[in-house]
Design brief:
The protein is of the alpha+beta class and 265 residues long. 62% of the residues lie in helices and 14% in strands. It has 7 helices and 4 strands; from the N terminus they run ααααββββααα. It has helices at residues 2-28, 34-50, 53-68, 76-106, 163-193, 195-212, 224-248, and strands spanning 110-121, 126-134, 139-146, 152-159. The chain has a 4-stranded antiparallel β-sheet, with helices on one face. Helix 3 runs antiparallel to helix 4 (76-106). The termini are far apart.
Length: 265
């Protein structure tokens, strides 16, 4: 019992030490001070509202169209370098396009912040989530991320959704999923119900094939009774002929007469 208790205490001590080390590392990183992170996040949000992403997108697209038309004037090495630059511009255009849609739908000016910022801080990275109300009265959530040196790595912008909106969307997704499942089950049941018609059609086809086959006539074997009857008639006829011949020749005996054949007419 004492050994088990000692082991448990050691495990708890190790866990507390690791947690303490993690907290101390976070505190020692001056770049992750909440005031500093909030100040940098505010600057990034103001910069986002200050950029006309629609114009930026058009400028990059015009540059791409211009340099694409000058392919013949580029050397092979310069063209390869331009292709790498062009790929970056295409990615930048896609990002500008999304931001331009957000600005057009939700507003281009920051009015005020809603609530307190939310911090997610670890020993190597940090993220600040800020909810902002725009000039159109709509809300956006800005998520600004930083590396361990305090440099901004990413900024995400998404529509603010209340708990009711999230539950409504989840409920709609659930209803759609259930509807798809029921439609698939109904389709499977219809397919299974059609199997009996397939059997009926197959039976009809087999009957037609059987009816189209001609049955060869079976030769009829003469009956034994008929043969015996014909044999009896022949014996009687032989006896009558023999008696007539014997009567015609009185001097001769009928024992010497032999009937070779009988021809019917």
């Amino acid at each position: 019992m004492n050994k088990k208790l000692t082991f448990i205490l050691c495990v708890l001590s190790c866990a507390l030490l690791m947690a303490g080390c993690n907290v101390s590392l976070t505190k020692q990183n001056k770049n992750f001070a909440k005031d500093t992170l909030k100040e940098k996040a505010d600057s990034a949000i103001d910069e986002w509202f200050g950029v006309d992403y629609a114009s930026q997108m058009d400028q990059y697209q015009q540059a791409i169209d211009y340099y694409d038309g000058m392919k013949d004037s580029f050397s092979e090495s310069d063209w390869e370098s331009y292709q790498a630059q062009r790929a970056e511009w295409v990615e930048q255009i896609a990002e500008f396009k999304e931001n331009a849609k957000l600005q057009k739908k939700y507003g281009t000016e920051k009015k005020k912040e809603i609530g307190k910022p939310d911090y997610t801080i670890s020993s190597e990275s940090a993220t600040v989530n800020v909810t902002v109300k725009t000039n159109k009265g709509k809300k956006l959530i800005f998520s600004v991320s930083y590396d361990e040196d305090g440099n901004q790595t990413e900024i995400k912008v998404e529509e603010y959704k209340s708990l009711g909106q999230k539950m409504g969307k989840a409920g709609l997704n659930t209803i759609m999923s259930m509807a798809i499942v029921f439609v698939v089950l109904i389709f499977i049941s219809l397919v299974i119900s059609c199997f009996k018609f397939i059997g009926v059609i197959q039976n009809r086809s087999n009957r037609k094939q059987a009816a189209s086959v001609k049955v060869a006539p079976v030769p009829v074997t003469p009956s034994v009774d008929v043969e015996e009857e014909n044999l009896v008639d022949d014996l009687e006829l032989v006896a009558v002929i023999t008696a007539a011949i014997a009567a015609a020749g009185e001097a001769e005996s009928a024992d010497g007469l032999v009937v070779r054949s009988i021809v019917r007419r």
